[in-house]
Design brief:
Layout lengths: L8 E5 L13 H7 L2 H9 E5 L12 H10 L2 E4 L10 H20 L6 E5 L10 E3 L18 H17 L4 H18 L5 H16 L5 E6 L1 E3 L17 H8 L5 E3 L8 E3 H15 L8 E5 L9 H14 L16 E3 L2 H25 L5 H25 L3 E3 L2 H12 L16 H13 L3 H4 L3 E5 L4 H13 L5 E6 L4 H13 L5 H7 L2 H9 E5 L12 H10 L2 E4 L10 H20 L6 E5 L10 E3 L18 H17 L4 H18 L5 H16 L5 E6 L1 E3 L17 H8 L5 E3 L8 E3 H15 L8 E5 L9 H14 L16 E3 L2 H25 L5 H25 L3 E3 L2 H12 L16 H16 L3
Family: Belongs to the fatty acyl-CoA reductase family.
EC number: 1.2.1.84
Function: Catalyzes the reduction of fatty acyl-CoA to fatty alcohols.
């Protein structure tokens, strides 16, 4: 495109925030630019608080006004009300006088090259046949009735408003009267509704007063979801034909009024935008006495019939049914088509007016007992009649929109080396079946519907994954009904403080804060109920009996994320949280009257030290990894409690009890083949759930090593030193010079947002799916996109050489090659020579010099013992040879790709990860930003 498009960017807004940027529409740009998007917006976009119904567009800043008059090259008028049933005064001010105000402002712009005014093809009214791209002249009417005068129209509406105010009419009465006036005035001159009448008058005004300003009017037909860019299927709000798609999919639309063979003229939004851009380039500085008109639609070049849309809708919702509030799939059938107004009136009389008459009689006979029901029923019927009255002209529309000028524009674009792959707007390229089945309807109906009006109980609400889970739901589906968040706190006040400090105040919620501004607190207040409690207790430790009853009555889905993930945890704590806690969550879930499913988040490492392909299969009660019999959870509980009593009887210190209970956990885990207390107790939790699940839909999700976010809410968010990150921190700070492990080992990692997305999709896919079996999903990367330890080392070295950590002395920390110890034997030799031998020397010196080095000796001995214990704990993973099968998870991903789920929003396919890019540009920077101290 020519340099003329590189113009001063202006947005006229009623407010100070560009909330549009936070929409999913800008996702591709956010992914492309990352953190640079804000600076681009700051540099290129100037927000202009204003109002096109006012002189000078209501801009109050004189400096900004002067700047625009001095700098603006092109003005694009997209401001309008598109409501068919708008108040006449509102519609007249915006669509008619607003257009005049925009033109007058444009005339003051010293460098003006073009005014592009976006109108609508339906200024044609109910005309049939071929509708030409020609302007409407002042006073022209569609039915030949003379006398249309804009000053008179303005006077009529002002006099009617004054009359209503003098009568002290209510706001509701004024609104209804002004709506009726708009329809009356429109129909007097041949237009079917206020919207197209006022848009036609806006065109007339512009044509009359344009002067020598190049003026282009672009008339799109019905604008639908995007065809290709920025991604297929983006749409906002329920647009014209989408109300039919939503109504049909939800089972509310059983009949339809209209001619099945009528052509419906639709055009994707991105094609309209492309036609605007090409029209700007083609017409800038092209002075002409005439107004240039472009009709942008499909009815001439690629007509679409109503009957086809009905067929596509039936096939789509049969394959991808809407899930109702009761958790059941809505079964759709064929729609009864009423092909004339006479058949519609008969249908309404028999189906609705006759029962209404019966209800009226019953209401009178029973002393107005059914008064409320009668009025509500009558109101709904009146509403339907008004809607049909408004839309009737389009239900039997016989017009075809000529697009000769638009076709010339397309030809000029092809011949003028305009990138037609980028600025495409030819409707002939659209395959309607593919567009509706795979783009438009999925754009209107998304898996987000599952979350709508859902009540979800989340345990462990301040944990790393739980916070990302909650943020994602609030961001993509603010119409979730309620999130009950269980967290450890003594009371509601402390729970609120903890949730704010540990979740909402974190950078994780930055995108949501930017998107919602001051509305975020209101959303949290409305949608989140904080539940002080503890999953180690009966009824989850919730003391408020009313709240317990409310959750049992309302909760649809329970998500258990509460756990201790410490490999070296005390056995009593890990057993109570990871094993018995899972049982307590299940027992609470059983009491929930509307429960659709329980999602329990475990870990892939319940597999222990197994090699080869590790399948997505459950663990049964008493099953062990080494075949040793005798695992019994009641016995484990007894052994743990007896050991505690023994220690307390001996008056052991807290430190001694903690160490003893840690040792007991490791001992019991290794007895049955698990390497540490964490995975042993998580495995027992899975066993318990599988044993007692009954008929409750139960999904167990097993992520591998969870790392920083890949994309959402922004790349690189992480919290705390997670498994892998202790190595990153140690290496970046120059403290890690050797590492024990097999450099060729595959390290199975998965970004946190992918885990959360898999959770959300698993919920939608398995809700109300009763089964005797537990559904297992292993979410990792080792099968589909493996990464080896040596690759991570290489990326780390590259990163910290390029971006060295600045130490406390203000100097850059230099990192070098790591000494790899490829076996436990080489590790023990290394420790013996490098640390144990000097320690022995220090011990002798300490004894010789009357314990002068006691502090230093004790400190070094403690550190060496700590390292040896750490290596002992992590040894199974340092030489791990297992790869996690993910067949079930892949089926879930396929359902995303083939179904109505937006794979760009609920992505969790590790194959899309470029590990080098992820580590170098996302994970390492995230760890440095959020973890390094």
């Amino acid at each position: 495109m020519k340099a003329v498009l590189e113009c001063f960017v202006v947005a006229v807004v009623n407010g100070s925030e560009m909330k549009a940027i936070a929409k999913d529409l800008f996702r591709v740009l956010r992914e492309k630019l990352g953190g640079k998007l804000n600076s681009l917006i700051s540099e290129k976009v100037t927000l202009v608080p204003g109002d096109i119904t006012c002189e000078n567009l209501g801009v109050k800043d004189p400096n900004l006004e002067e700047e625009m008059w001095r700098e603006v090259d092109i003005v694009v008028n997209l401001a309008a009300t598109t409501n068919f049933d708008e108040r006449y005064d509102v519609s007249f001010q915006l669509n008619t006088m607003g257009a005049k105000n925009v033109l007058n402002f444009s005339k003051k712009c010293a460098n003006i090259k073009l005014l592009l005014h976006v109108s609508t093809a339906y200024v044609s009214g109910e005309k049939g046949g071929l509708i030409l791209e020609k302007p409407y002249y002042m006073g022209e009417t569609l039915n030949g009735v003379s006398g249309l005068n804009l000053d008179t129209e303005k006077k009529i509406l002002e006099e009617r408003l004054s009359e209503l105010r003098a009568e002290e009419a209510t706001d509701k009465e004024i609104t209804l009267a002004m709506k009726d006036l708009g329809i009356q005035r429109a129909r007097k001159y041949g237009w079917p509704n206020t919207y197209v009448f006022t848009k036609a008058m806006g065109e007339m005004l512009l044509g009359q007063i344009k002067g020598n300003i190049p003026l282009v009017m672009l008339r799109p037909t019905i604008v639908t979801s995007t065809y290709k860019e920025p991604f297929p299927g983006w749409v906002e709000g329920i647009r014209t034909i989408d109300s039919l798609a939503v109504g049909y999919g939800k089972g509310r639309l059983t009949c339809f009024l209209g001619d099945p063979e009528s052509v419906i003229d639709v055009i994707p939004a991105d094609m309209v935008v492309n036609s605007m851009l090409v029209a700007m380039e083609a017409n800038a500085n092209e002075a002409s006495d005439d107004v240039v008109i472009y009709q942008v639609g499909s009815s001439l070049a690629n007509p679409l019939r109503f009957s086809w849309i009905q067929d596509y809708g039936h096939r789509y919702f049969t394959k991808h049914p809407w899930v109702g509030k009761d958790g059941k799939a809505v079964i759709v059938g064929k729609v009864t088509v009423l092909s004339s107004m006479a058949s519609f009136r008969r249908y309404m009389a028999i189906r609705y007016l006759l029962p209404l008459k019966g209800l009226q009689v019953a209401n009178t006979a029973f002393c107005q007992f059914f008064q409320g029901t009668y009025f509500e029923f009558r109101r709904k019927i009146n509403f339907v009649f008004r809607l049909v009255e408004l839309y009737q002209p389009y239900l039997f529309f016989k017009g075809i929109y000529d697009d000769i000028n638009t076709e010339k524009l397309r030809m000029a674009a092809k011949e003028g080396n305009v990138e037609t792959d980028v600025f495409y707007f030819d409707p002939k390229t659209i395959n309607w079946e593919d567009y509706f089945m795979n783009t438009h309807i999925p754009g209107v109906v998304n898996v987000v519907q599952f979350l709508e009006n859902k009540n979800i109980l989340v345990t462990g609400a301040t944990g790393f994954l739980a916070k990302i889970f909650v943020e994602k739901i609030l961001r993509v589906q603010p119409n979730v009904k309620k999130l009950y968040l269980l967290l450890r706190a003594a009371d509601e006040k402390l729970a609120s403080q903890r949730f704010h400090n540990e979740a909402v105040a974190k950078d994780l919620f930055r995108v949501l804060r930017e998107k919602m501004g001051g509305s975020l607190n209101a959303l949290i207040s409305e949608k989140i109920t904080l539940v002080p409690g503890d999953i180690t207790c009966e009824n989850l430790g919730v003391k408020d009996s009313n709240l317990v009853e409310e959750m049992w009555r309302e909760v649809d889905v329970v998500v258990n994320l509460a756990a201790t993930t410490n490999f070296d945890e005390r056995y009593d704590i890990a057993f109570d949280l990871n094993a018995m806690g899972a049982k307590n969550v299940f027992n609470f879930s059983k009491e929930c009257a509307k429960l659709e499913m329980l999602l329990h988040v475990s870990t892939a490492y319940v597999s222990g030290e197994r090699g080869g392909i590790i399948l997505e299969k459950p663990y049964y009660m008493g099953e062990t990894l080494n075949g040793v019999p005798g695992l019994d959870l009641d016995m484990e509980k007894k052994i743990m409690e007896e050991r505690l009593i023994e220690l307390q009887t001996k008056e052991a210190t807290d430190q001694e009890i903690t160490l003893a209970m840690k040792d007991l956990g490791i001992q019991r885990a290794r007895k049955y083949g698990w390497p540490n207390t964490y995975v042993f107790t998580k495995a027992m939790g899975e066993m318990l759930l599988g044993q007692i699940k009954g008929n409750i839909p139960l999904v167990i999700l097993r992520p591998t090593i969870i790392t920083s976010t890949y994309k959402e809410p922004f790349p690189g968010w992480v919290e705390g030193i997670r498994t892998l990150d202790s190595l990153v921190v140690g290496y970046g700070k120059g403290r890690l010079t050797s590492f024990v492990g097999d450099r060729q080992s595959i390290l199975d990692m998965i970004p946190a947002d992918m885990v959360v997305n898999s959770m959300l999709v698993a919920m939608a896919a398995n809700a109300n799916e009763a089964s005797d079996d537990v559904v297992i999903y292993q979410v990792g990367s080792s099968v589909s996109n493996p990464i080896r330890l040596n690759s991570i080392q290489d990326y780390g070295q590259l990163y910290f050489k390029k971006h060295p950590w600045i130490g406390k002395d203000g100097k850059a920390v230099k990192v070098g090659n790591i000494t790899w110890l490829s076996s436990m034997a080489s590790f023990r030799r290394y420790v013996a020579i490098r640390y144990l031998l000097p320690l022995k020397g220090l011990q002798i010196a300490n004894t010789t010099f009357c314990h002068s080095f006691e502090g230093r000796y004790s400190y070094l001995r403690r550190k060496i013992k700590f390292v040896l214990r750490l290596v002992e704990l992590y040894e199974p993973y340092l030489f791990f040879k297992g790869r996690y099968d993910d067949i079930n998870t892949e089926k879930l991903r396929m359902a995303v790709r083939e179904g109505s789920i937006d794979a760009n929003v609920f992505y969790f396919d590790p194959k899309i990860i470029n590990w080098e890019d992820y580590f170098m540009n996302i994970h390492f920077p995230g760890v440095v930003n959020y973890v390094f101290k």
